[in-house]
Amino acid sequence: MSNGNESAPVIEVTGLGRKYGRKEALQDVSLRVGSGGVFGLVGENGAGKTTLIQHLLGALRPQSGTVRVFGADPAYDPPAVLSRIGYLSEDRDLPGWMRVGEFLRYMRAFYPGWDAAFAERMVGEFGLNPAAKIRSLSRGEQARTGLLAAVAHRPELLLLDEPSSGLDAVARQQILAAVVRTVAEEGRTVVFSSHLLDEVERVADHVLMLHQGRVVMDMPMDEVKARHRTHLLRWAEVPAADAPALPGMLRAERDGREWRVLCDGDPEALAAAVRAAGGEILETAPATLEAVFVARVGA
Length: 299
Fold this sequence. Notes:
Elements: E1 11-20, E2 23-33, E3 37-43, H1 49-56, E4 64-69, H2 78-82, E5 85-88, H3 100-108, H4 116-125, H5 139-151, E6 157-161, H6 169-184, E7 189-193, H7 197-203, E8 206-211, E9 214-220, H8 221-227, E10 228-235, E11 249-255, E12 258-264, H9 267-276, E13 279-286, H10 289-297
Parallel strand pairs: 3-7, 3-8, 5-6, 6-7
Antiparallel strand pairs: 1-2, 1-4, 8-9, 10-12, 10-13, 11-12
Helix pairs in contact: 5-6
């Protein structure tokens, strides 16, 4: 249920629930995020990712359960929390009438810890024109401007809600590189929500998977990769239409005498079960996070 330093969690959520009418956006969600590293938050559209992040920001109050960020309730004690957080959403929500330089000076006024030299360096690295109106920027340039504003005060916690949505590959790579650098410097913590599972797999140290408002997986990324494997199986005789019962099997697809299965668990137990059923393992490969996601929550 956790990553990082067990004794001093940056985020601790216990039994969080929220309904919108009859729809349960979050159902008994619990998680613990320690200091340092990237915590990946994945799930289909409507799974509850943004609703969870809004609770971490204090924009929503829990209907049930508790939310603590740096040990404080963000809904009831915003000053203790928000000054230590950087935030970037999919919508960016930047003032289009401002110029880039004006916007950064405006943001600087809210944060005593604003690092002007770092911000100036990032403007150059991101290729931003301080004199350009924000409304005239491309989606990628707006995302880079928003990210710069979110990290220039050196926040202890960076919340990114679909930060690279709708961006081209170059812009996505730049944002991911900046996120990784943010973590590498001074042990900062990032919570990174994305539907681009290959990106999460590449940068996250820990992953929490939501489906219809419930947690369906919560484990370190190394453990996800170690436990989940895809196997190509073949039987001497054509098996029945149903997939054979195998230990830890999450998903199976048939092609004639062969089955491609994704399993979570002990590969030796799987191999023994396949042999006992009269089959053989033709090949085995690590499962991608996307394959694990599809197996656990459906197509």
